[in-house]
Amino acid sequence: MECAGKGSRRTQCSGPPTRRCGRCGAVAYCSISHQVSHWTVHKEECERLEQQMKCADVLNEFPFAFSQEATVQVCEKQETRCSFLKKRGIHQVGLWMHECSCGAAVDSLDHSRFVIMPTVNMICELKFSILCPSSPIPKHLCSWKDYYDWRCIPLYSPVALLLHWPLTVYHAIQLAAARNLIPEFSNELRIHYLGPDKELSQLAVFGELIALFQGVQVHVELVGPAIPQYRDGEKIDLYNYAHCIETDCICKSSSENLSLHVSGKSSEVRLRLHSGYYHDRYRDIAKDSLPHLIIAPNAGIAAFMSWLRTIELIKTINIPAVFSDYCEEACHLAACCISSVTSCLGLGLNFGESLKVPFRVNDVLPALPRQISWPVLNNLHSAVDLLPSFVGSVSPTNGSIEWKGACFFDNEARLEFTGGDRGLGGGILHLKVKQHGISVFLMPSGMLGTLLSLVDVLPLFSNTVWGQNANLEFLKKHMGATFEKRSRPWRATINPDDVHSGDFLALSKIRGRWGGFETLEKWVTGAFAGHTAVCLKDEFGNLWVGESGHENGKGEEIIVVIPWDEWWELSLKDESNPQVVLLPLHPDVRAKFNSTAAWEYARSMAGKPYGYHNMIFSWIDTIADNYPPPLDAHLVISVMSMWTRVQPAYAANMWNEALNKRLGTEDLDLYGILAETERQGITFDQLLTIPEQDDWVYSDGKSTTCVAFILAMYKEAGILGPYANSIQVTEFTIRDAYMLKIFEENITRLPSWCNNEIDQLPFCQILGEYKMELPEYNTLEPYANMNEYCPTLPPTYERPVHC
């Protein structure tokens, strides 16, 4: 636990947070001074937290024989989730694989392995029995003990960990029925289940609904962004609840009763998967299945802005909904969010035992979706650290105030009023800063809007389905991309004989670290691809790939020439889910391609670092027309200044050397560069627009980005013809490159394996589930000094002729 007053005063914490609030006991402080300063914040929540703390013991009480081991001992670090499972022989076994932090990621699952066998060896792998129900289901199952007794499960069995999903559905139905929110049902029950994630690897446990709703046809529509696109529309029919499949087990169940998709037999429980947000998919789903009830277990409403549109939809369609969350405070925050949209709390806060996971939250976190668990587990800082801290108010009567910041230090401010006619006067605010001056920025959307924008951007870098969907939505919204799904197969069977030296490879990565980086790069440059490579054939006809930006064993981004098979295998294994297209050169252009010169250039560059020196300067050509709002040159210099303090070596590599080249100076740091810029009578935004020169040699050699490497090779190979000496290829973005009119324009000459008959693209897409879009592909004839002063403003990215 951190000091709750951390950041509320300028003084640092004096020690560990050993002083708890005497009233609620929910927060702790390092000192009396921090407790006093934080009271203005804490007093708004203290009474609520006090009531929650009174219920803490009740919420952590379970009837299971393993309760102490799974809760108290885990909390006190005497036990871990993994050790708990290992003692029972179920660690990383079957569905239990996802019940600890070291289990396989949901995204990497072979889902069919678990869906086709609905029993998932729940008993065989557990050594515990689930018997057939001993009697018809009671009118209400009010607790885990009621459920275990009815299902004849011993209290030492941890199967509750797997069955809490269907029990949550059951309990939600009971809550809604008790309040007359849903009509009576006898033959059919339709449920819309929102936001599934880990459930996708445990779908078989929903067969338990057959026992809970005997004689009822249960239809569950699972809707959420974590469902992969390739599973959209998938149907899973479950014909029996979870049994043991060991023939000598006491429950005497037979494996024949546990199959899926039995021909000619109507299902007891039908699951159907829908990829995307509920507010986007509802209209299509409701055509076939208007729900009795909407259920969103462990929703995290307060954490995700996307819930707001869903809540607005639910209010509009007037269908009852039940939301649950992992703790009481999360439920309170969720209720506030729902109330702000609907002006009512629906079912309100209700804590039934059937909804509880029999582990404490801090031990459950590793098994939760990463977008929830990682920020908590990493425990970097609280969200409050994103907000500005109050230093003090400035007035003529209180003298001056002083503060120390991350970028500027020994700062001082004072206010002096000046007299004026008719009693009206003004004032002068004096700011004293020890180093480098002050930049003043307005947050046009306010602090809240800025934070919401951060929420939109941060998911881009998540290596999850959630992160991929965030990238797709960002590019659709800000660039007008469509991401139309391709017909299968998504992977081409390539014949290397049809690929030639100089053929261009364009890649679009849409998830993870590189997916997020490329999304922002695409947005600022207008390119619909984020990485490139080039094909080369040697004298023996072997196919190779030249690439700037290949990660070596040391984690360095370098230039390489590697065999095609090796490059292709890496692409297939790439977790960033690359979409890859091959852009063959036009036959007339290919005839001019000097393969010997191209190979000489490639070998001369092999092993050199990626062209970070000129990466940002290929994008910035103009003073104001290359920055998507709210970016501008002033923000660029501020980011450079902050980064210089945090990572001076990184800053030197990214821009210091390049800026020195533009000024004709050497070894100046950023602040020396700013002074020299002023001395030479130019502004910093003008300095950024000075074109990069291909013959500039940096401390680590010539610098080429992925696309500059290819175009420099084209120069050497004679493709750019008479303009070779008047074109600076280090000024090209990826968009500039694929716009060049040098590629095949007759789709009938493309290889037969290139595209399927339905897609009909003007180039060869060889990998990816979405059609690659390359607007203005193959339209621009080369000309002298091209791309040195071109604007790139979204969403159209229009450019004048011969810019």
From TrEMBL:
Residues 3-46 form the MYND-type domain. GO terms for molecular function: zinc ion binding. SUPFAM superfamilies: HIT/MYND zinc finger-like (SSF144232). Signal peptide: none annotated. Keywords: Metal-binding, Zinc, Zinc-finger. InterPro entries: Mss51-like_C, Znf_MYND. Pfam families: MSS51_C, zf-MYND. This is MYND-type domain-containing protein. It comes from Camellia sinensis var. sinensis (China tea).
